[in-house]
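Late entry, evening session. Most of the bench is empty. Finally got around to the prediction I had been postponing all week. Sequence below, unchanged from the version circulated by S.P.
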Amino acid sequence: MNQEHKLWTKDFIMVSVSNFLLFISFYILMVTLAVYSIDKFHASQSKAGLASSIFVLGAVIVRPIAGKMIERVGKKRLLLLGLSLFLIIMLLYFPVNSLPLLFLIRFLHGFAFGIATTATGTIAADIIPMSRRGEGMGYFATSMNLAMAVGPFIGLFISQNFDHFVIFLVTTVFAVVAIVTSLFLAIPKTSIEAKTFQTKSGFHLGDYFEKSTIPIAILVAVFGFVYSSILSFLSSYAEEINLVNAASFFFVMYAAFLLVSRPFTGKWFDIKGENMIIYPSIFLFGAGLIILSQAQHAITLLIAGAVIGIGFGTFQSSAQTVAVNLAPKTRTGLATSTFFVFYDFGIGVGPFILGFILPLIGFRSLYFCMAVIVFIGILLYYLVHGKKAVDFQKDKKQTKDIQVG
């Protein structure tokens, strides 16, 4: 295969590994910090939840700044800066002796995570050949999806069998390996005219957000809001319907079926265009939520995990690819940060809002309502991007026909 079209290069594998280690640390800490806060500091449920979620707030705040800085500072330098901060702050968990200090550490840790993951997403988009971007971004996103399945499993296993010290030790080791891996990255440089930075003065919103990314990012925020209902309330729902054991394998099914589908969906994205992938993935996401809302047996819950994995997992990576493709080459960093600011916002605000709604309607109605929102999202996607994607594919086909003729 031509080297210019090769996907599985050393650098692509390394940046994917670093991204995986960041996200697996994120999920390990997310599922254990609430229990840790209650056990060590006798925190209330609300404060324990804040100890987990304030991390996301830190990431949301710093992403626009990281997106603005990445081309000026350099992608590899920003990645190593983010990873180094991530490791240093990770070490601060060991001596923490008060709940307010834990809140501060979690917030700053979110800062470091936001910087590092903005860099990994941007680097991956630059390394992947344009002709295989849909396939490549799909595989890169799998590093997050696998972490989503493996991280909570490892976190809960350590929490149930070992001291909390071991949780911080394991995540520290992951941070060290991520830094070592990133040191050997060779990243293509993007040429940017110096006047780009010299002619602008004062505050400009466009310096922190990529305008072309915002429409698709709004849909991502809506679906992130919906998906937060699964991340936050699946365990409680499983207890209510007596399927706790099956629920522990929900995300395993999610990751397994997403991984199996990835070789096909990524290639179809590049060959047939985004609409051929995104419309079915949204439909599957909604269908999976309906199945989840009606689950009464373990097999039904696991089927829901598989369907949601293919649906939401494929949509997420496809939407990220769309966001990067729409942005100018020199603003892929901003496009990546803008995408994740909206996604993180949806994930972060979801549990807070849904927490008020849940007591009024119950779990089954909640997931059914989430499915309705997703199906409405099909129309929203058409309005924000799907219609334009059809026109683009027509122009692309006409250009190809002219060249052949």
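Two things to note before I forget:
The longest helix spans residues 332-404.
Residues 191-199, 395-405 have pLDDT under 50 and may be disordered.
Will write this up properly tomorrow.
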